């Protein structure tokens, strides 16, 4: 847990959870919440995840002149979600590059720049736009270190706003993480709150391996307190490892596992369960989808005996499938019931007027918990 | 047909070689030594104004013979690799036969600070960049996926996904410009690749960002079975004008022309004037790879026409006419080629398989617990050499290592043989 960031666990009645102001809601970008130009922020003021990412990118660029930001509309506009707002003013057009609209080229040229010693941070504007770059990501970026017998390192970060819940048109609400988790050579992470977002983006940029960095777009405007000091200035242990999963709420009766946008949903479900059923649910934020850090999950399941995995992506051959398989392999005799999953349906992402039916919510999670206890 | 040569030198090739290339519309000009140009917008003077002979005027007699030697050795390596494939020592081979002039001419134009991005047939460029040919054979033998240090040789790894490397080259060239490097990048691709989205994205980016990059398209007339006219309604070199940078079409079977044009293009790129597209018109005299049968899609007459434009024959004729290549020197080059091939064969046939557990190496820079767990499990079951295994008894009759199995070695070769037998 990023202890520096935890300021208001008492809001949830238990120690542990990160602060996520519920009032920020699931709405789209709110102008009032948009981050201003990057700059100093005190540790005390709650900020949005978008701002936290912005400050993290600022810190990463300030720390290493080889870091460059590239993508569609990331410069003058500051990105369609304003995550790169002010960076071009601060670091110049040479380091914050408005690119042509060519996703394959965004990744392909980033590979070339990385071969030349740069550390590109690419933005794919929306999840559904990543597929034109699929070959460059899975066949080139992921494999060149292996193909070169370790001679080539490609420290490329690919930021992708992902997931639904903002009432968007088609191709703007998808959860493509399983494609990338399935590919050796890629790291895949998802932040769920401002404090993690701030630290994880800096850690991702510092990684010598390529990182798919998934940002839950419907949580961009939820606030939390962030220790905005640059990563290098934080005391040891203040920020979790990039690839550590974290218990964000302790509980004793069943374990909920989520990542990205569904961590908040799991925490909400745990609150309701606590009040209604007096069931104590533990919530784990996976944070890293590849590699998976299943240590905390296994430890939790060995105590609770019940596990529900929650994500927006469809269930078929998904992260939850991998978690279920490996927990079954490694903690079979601790399980009181099968591992259950609450996921998006195995359909294309529906029209926005139907997305509330598609996305995992508190009711579906608690229903799964009930089913677990019914075994 | 005139070869471009140092000032004052002229040579004529046989009349029949002047027939239009098979993929040029009837009545169109054949590939000629005099480069053709496509003007960029703005009327910037380009290829038509290049004094190409001046770009090779510094070549000494030894340099000229050196180009012939390069082409001869590269062809010999290519022949040996083809034989090794036929004998089961390589799983596959992609022959460069016919493209020696394009590759050696452009490859010898490169300086120590330049960076080349190949596709998978640039054995001649690799030769010019000092890459060990055995490292290339190792790829086609299935013993390696790369095998040389790109930074050390200024020669990136082969790229099999067609056209993908053009974007890497664009990004790399952008980085060179940022670093104030005095080098440029060159990227090799073919007529087929020119249809790929990545290539067109690379054109756009390199133009917009003024990347110091030479796009070197070897139009070898065939993308496996598809002729160039299936890739583009316009001449490939005309494409550059739409992206805002100049292009040159050059006789790709003329090593001096290729050298001169590439030197010009690289110098232009290094001077900060942005990318150039070179279309080297040549011919893939062999099959696409050893798994291909070109008699199914092209005629013997076409092959004969291009055989009469053989780049080695042309350079030999030129050197002989000028008294630069006597029989003794040619014999010594041939001997050198045979020695090289013999050595390469020996190194190929004795090349050990990589250590089995090396398949777990370099998946990522950072440790990956999943991979290390699988490595440990593999080692526990089969031993570090992969040969132990089956501790609980002998393999069953239908297990991979059992009496009816195909064995775990030579899978690629065995697999191809199986496909051929079953399919036909």
Key words describing this protein structure:
heterodimer, A: 375 residues, alpha/beta, Rossmann fold, 2 domains, 7-stranded mixed sheet, 5-stranded mixed sheet, globular, B: 424 residues, disordered N terminus, oxidoreductase (chain B), Alpha-ketoacid_DH_E1_comp (chain B)
> Roughly what is the average pLDDT of chain B, rounded to an integer?
85
* CATH second-level architecture of the largest domain in chain A: 3-Layer(aba) Sandwich
How would you sum up the global shape of chain A?
A: globular
Determine Rg of chain B (CA atoms, Å).
23 Å
CATH homology superfamily name of the largest domain in chain A: Thiamin diphosphate (ThDP)-binding fold, Pyr/PP domains
Biggest contact: A-B, 42 and 42 residues
The name of the CATH topology of the largest domain in chain A is: Rossmann fold
Please give the share of residues in helix of chain B: 40-55%
- Please name the fourth-level CATH homologous superfamily of the largest domain in chain B: Thiamin diphosphate (ThDP)-binding fold, Pyr/PP domains
Number of helices of chain A: 12
What is the approximate shape of chain B?
globular
The largest sheet of chain A is: 7 strands, mixed
Strand content of chain B: 5-15%
Instruction: Give the DSSP E fraction of chain A (strand runs of 2 or more residues).
Output: 15-25%
- SSE topology string of chain A: EHEHEHEHHEHEHEEEEHEEHEHEHH
InterPro entries (chain B): Alpha-ketoacid_DH_E1_comp, DH_E1, PdhA/BkdA, THDP-binding
Region (Disordered) (chain B): 1-50, 383-424
Cofactor (chain B): thiamine diphosphate
GO biological process, one term (chain B): branched-chain amino acid catabolic process
């Amino acid at each position: 847990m990023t202890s520096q960031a935890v300021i208001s666990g008492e809001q949830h009645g238990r120690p542990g959870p990160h602060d996520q102001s519920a009032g920020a809601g699931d709405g789209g970008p709110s102008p009032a919440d948009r981050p201003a130009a990057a700059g100093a922020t005190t540790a005390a003021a709650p900020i949005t995840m978008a701002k936290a990412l912005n400050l993290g990118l600022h810190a990463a660029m300030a720390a290493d002149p080889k870091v460059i930001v590239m993508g569609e509309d990331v410069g003058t506009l500051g990105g369609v979600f304003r995550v790169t707002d002010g960076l071009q003013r601060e670091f110049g057009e040479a380091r914050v590059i408005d690119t042509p609209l060519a996703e394959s080229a965004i990744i392909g040229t980033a590979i070339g720049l990385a071969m030349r010693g740069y550390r590109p941070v690419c933005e794919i504007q929306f999840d559904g736009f990543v597929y034109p770059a699929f070959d460059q990501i899975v066949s080139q970026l992921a494999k060149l270190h292996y193909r070169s017998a370790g001679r080539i390192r490609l420290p490329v970060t690919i930021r992708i706003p992902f997931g639904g819940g903002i009432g968007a048109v088609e191709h703007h609400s998808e959860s493509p993480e399983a494609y990338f988790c399935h590919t050796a050579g890629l790291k895949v992470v998802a932040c769920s709150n401002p404090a993690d977002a701030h630290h994880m983006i800096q850690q991702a940029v510092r990684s010598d391996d390529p990182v798919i960095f998934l940002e839950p777009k419907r949580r961009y405007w939820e606030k939390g307190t962030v220790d905005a000091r640059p990563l290098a200035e934080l005391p040891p242990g203040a920020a979790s490892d990039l690839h550590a999963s974290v218990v964000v709420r302790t509980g004793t009766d069943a374990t909920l596992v989520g990542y990205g946008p569904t961590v908040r949903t799991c925490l909400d479900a745990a609150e309701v369960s606590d009040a209604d059923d007096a069931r104590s649910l533990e919530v784990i934020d996976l944070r890293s989808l590849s590699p998976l850090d299943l240590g905390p999950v296994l430890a939790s399941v060995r105590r609770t005996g019940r596990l529900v995995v929650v994500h927006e992506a469809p269930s078929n051959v998904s992260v939850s499938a991998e978690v279920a398989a490996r927990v079954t392999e490694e903690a079979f005799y601790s399980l009181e019931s099968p591992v259950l999953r609450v996921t998006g349906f195995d359909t294309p992402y529906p029209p926005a007027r139907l997305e509330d039916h598609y996305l995992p919510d508190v009711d579906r999670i608690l229903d799964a918990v009930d089913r677990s206890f019914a075994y | 047909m005139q070869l471009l040569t140092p000032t004052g030198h002229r040579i004529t090739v046989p009349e029949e070689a002047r027939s239009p290339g098979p993929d040029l519309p009837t009545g169109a000009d054949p590939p000629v030594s005099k480069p053709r140009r496509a003007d960029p917008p703005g009327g910037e003077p380009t290829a038509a104004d290049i004094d190409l002979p001046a770009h090779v005027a510094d070549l000494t007699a030894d340099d000229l013979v050196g180009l012939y030697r390069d082409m001869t050795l590269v062809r010999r390596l290519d022949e040996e690799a083809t034989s090794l494939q036929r004998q089961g020592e390589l799983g596959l081979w992609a022959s460069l036969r016919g493209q020696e002039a394009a590759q050696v001419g452009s490859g010898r134009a490169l300086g120590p600070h330049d960076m080349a991005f190949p596709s998978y047939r640039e054995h001649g460029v690799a030769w010019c960049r000092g890459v060990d040919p055995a490292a290339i054979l190792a790829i086609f033998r299935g013993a390696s996926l790369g095998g040389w240090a790109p930074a050390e040789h200024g020669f990136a790894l082969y790229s099999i996904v067609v056209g993908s490397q053009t974007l890497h080259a664009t990004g790399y060239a952008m980085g060179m410009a940022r670093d104030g490097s005095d080098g440029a990048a060159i990227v090799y691709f073919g007529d087929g690749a020119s249809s790929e989205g990545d290539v067109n994205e690379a054109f756009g980016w390199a133009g917009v960002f003024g990347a110091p990059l030479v796009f070197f398209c070897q139009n070898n007339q065939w993308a496996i079975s598809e002729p160039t006219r299936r890739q583009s309604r316009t001449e490939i070199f005309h494409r550059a004008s739409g992206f805002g940078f100049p292009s040159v079409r050059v006789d790709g079977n003329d090593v001096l022309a290729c050298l001169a044009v590439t030197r010009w293009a690289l110098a232009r790129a290094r001077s900060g004037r942005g990318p150039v597209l070179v279309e080297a018109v040549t011919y893939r005299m062999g099959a696409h790879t050893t798994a291909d049968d070109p008699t199914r899609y092209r005629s013997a007459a076409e092959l004969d026409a291009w055989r009469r434009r053989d780049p080695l024959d042309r350079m030999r004729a030129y050197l002989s006419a000028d008294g630069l290549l006597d029989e003794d020197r040619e014999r010594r080059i041939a001997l050198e080629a045979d020695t090289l091939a013999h050595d390469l064969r020996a190194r190929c046939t004795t090349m050990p398989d990589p250590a089995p557990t090396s398949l777990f190496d370099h998946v990522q820079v950072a440790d990956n617990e999943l991979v290390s767990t699988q490595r440990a499990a593999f080692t526990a079951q089969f031993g570090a050499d992969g040969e132990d295994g089956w501790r609980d008894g002998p393999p069953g009759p239908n297990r991979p290592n059992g009496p009816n199995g195909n064995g775990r070695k030579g899978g690629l070769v065995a697999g191809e043989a199986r496909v051929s037998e079953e399919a036909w």
